[in-house]
Write a structure and sequence with these properties.
Blueprint (H helix, E strand, L loop, with lengths): L10 H4 L2 H8 L12 H14 L3 E8 L2 E8 L5 E3 L5 H7 L3 E3 L12 H4 L6 E8 L5 E9 L7 H20 L4 H9 L2 H6 L10 H18 L4 E7 L2 H8 L1 H18 L5 E4 L4 E6 L4 H17 L2 E2 L4 E2 L3 E7 L8 H17 L4 E4 L6
Parallel strand pairs: 12-13
Antiparallel strand pairs: 1-2, 1-6, 2-3, 4-5, 5-6, 7-9, 7-12, 8-9, 10-11
Helix pairs in contact: 3-6, 10-11, 11-12
Length: 356
């Protein structure tokens, strides 16, 4: 099923011509950028609305297909020639394939014959202001589907939502500055491949940049060191694949719990670094409570059962009246984290207020 004269197109209503012209003034550069809740939300919505195993938003560059967001399939990028999207991109039209094994264009793909063994595929091309295809919204399932007129309408709506987000929303301040200074290869080196948030080096670079700015702006910066409780026991009991699942889900949950301009990075094996701008004690406690509550709702899929996790969080806030290094504020947050671990885990402590 392809769209040639599809009456459900929402391109004019969702992204006006004026907005598209404005977007065209800026060079699109979203490859190898960190996890963003706005795209995770579209992927989650797509997975539920289309009733599929996996859904995501991809970007295309240098013959690669990179997943800006993907829910239900642990993949970060693919050679474009090996992807199911290649057929859709070549045609330039949205496509819904109810059974890949019955479609000669897909039947011999490795993603169909091995690996995930996808039997259903739907893809929608995302275009920039010049109408060049720069990415896709895509959905996959391991079971074929019956013909359903609503499938294409849902795909079209989700594709346009993803396109609007890519073209009309800028990356947030501190991270936008880093993205603008670095090429995609350098950005790739600053991202954690498993969780798709910044890695330790990326998080530290952003923290140091914000602390330097705060010396003149007077803005207070907070650091939260977030540790997964009993993570070794999760790995030992359920295996490393479940441990990896926990890291991915917790990273996504933290991103979903904070503001778009807050910075999330994977600091160590089971530890995350969260940097909050314009911080105050009440904000830190509120954010920590929200993160803990959201992660507690997260269930890990195992062969025998579902499992849950808790977090210990240590927090520290910079002093606007005196310069503070990244090393020093992290040291304070680490002290708070240590006290939380010693006092029973599963909660948050602010340095030095809550340390007795």
């Amino acid at each position: 099923m392809a769209a040639h004269d599809d009456p459900t197109s929402l391109s004019e209503s969702l992204a006006s011509k004026a907005t598209m012209r404005i977007a065209g003034l800026h060079k699109f550069d979203g490859f190898y950028t960190p996890l963003e809740e706005r795209f995770e939300r579209i992927s989650r919505l797509g997975k539920r609305a289309m009733g599929v195993r996996a859904a995501g938003v991809t970007l295309i560059a240098d013959d690669k297909l990179w997943f800006k967001s993907i829910i239900g399939w642990p993949v970060s990028e693919l050679p474009l020639k090996d992807s199911l999207e290649q057929v859709m991109i070549d045609s330039g039209e949205p496509i819904v394939v109810l059974d890949t094994l019955k479609d000669a264009r897909f039947a011999n793909s490795l993603l169909v014959t091995s690996g995930p063994r996808f039997r259903f595929y739907a893809g929608y091309p995302i275009r920039d202001a010049t109408r060049k295809i720069i990415g896709t919204f895509c959905a996959f399932d391991t079971e074929p589907k019956a013909a359903d007129e609503t499938l294409f309408e849902t795909l079209s709506d989700l594709g346009h939502l993803a396109e609007r987000e890519l073209l009309t929303s800028d990356l947030w301040d501190a991270q936008s500055q880093l993205v603008s200074k670095l090429g995609s290869a350098r950005r790739q080196a600053l991202l954690d491949t498993l969780t798709r948030v910044w890695n330790r080096r990326g998080g530290l670079e952003l923290l140091e940049s914000l602390l330097q700015e705060s010396e003149t702006s007077g803005e207070r910066i907070a650091v939260c060191m977030i540790d997964i409780d009993l993570f070794k026991e999760i790995n030992d009991k359920y295996g490393h694949p479940v441990g990896d699942q926990a890291l991915r889900k917790i990273a996504a949950s933290i991103v979903a719990s904070v503001r778009p301009d807050d910075i999330v990075s994977r600091y160590g094996g089971d530890e995350f670094l969260l940097v909050l701008r314009d911080a105050a004690p009440d904000l830190c406690r509120s954010v920590a409570s929200r993160i803990s509550a959201n992660v507690k709702k997260t269930r890990l899929r195992t062969r025998q059962e579902s499992a849950s996790v808790t977090l210990s969080i240590g927090m520290a806030i910079s002093d606007a009246s005196k310069p503070m290094t990244a090393e020093k504020i992290i040291e304070h947050a680490d002290q708070a984290l240590y006290h939380k671990k010693q006092s029973g885990r599963a909660g948050a402590i602010l340095y030095p207020d809550d340390i007795r």
